[in-house]
Amino acid sequence: MADEPAQAASPAPARPLILHSESTRRALRDIGRERSFADRAGQELNGNPRSAFDSRLGADVAGSARGDCMKGQFKGSGMGLLSLPALALAAAQGDCGR
Description:
98 residues
């Protein structure tokens, strides 16, 4: 008699997990076929700039990349008094930021 209530209270059949549905499998296959965001971004950046503003800004930043000659950031610095001609050349060519 003790077995009868246990059989009556048995749980209903478990529903299948949502993760194992056909739509989930199809979505995972589709994701596997697509290129990753990193690949797409790399192609966009390497192929062409995103906008004219970005390319102009990049060109201006690259063009203004000059060292501070007063801090010794010029080609030929670090040689004491022998670097004075290199300092004069950098200043004459406009390679000094200040």
